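Lab notebook, bench 4. The sequencing result for the construct came back, and we need a structural model before the next group meeting so we can plan mutations. Quick request posted to the team channel:

Model the 3D structure of this chain.
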Amino acid sequence: MWKTLRDRLSHQLKGERGVRLVVMIGVIGLALILLSRFVSFEDDETQVQEESTWTQNDISVELEAYCSAMEKELAEILV
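Done. Here's the predicted structure in token form:
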């Protein structure tokens, strides 16, 4: 069954007709990807809102911890 299906598809995709078919499938795929960027889904919006709950204080604490860790590593390298 799979061999006959593969043979039929390989026969159909040969030549200019096959190139056109592959190009059309690619263009349709790109259009769907582009369209999905403009269509918003409820789940995506709520997930983004949940992820963006960092406060300015949280960011400052994380930044200070990162800076102090980098300073310690730099001091170890220079010593």
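The chain has a mean pLDDT of 82.
Will bring this to the meeting.
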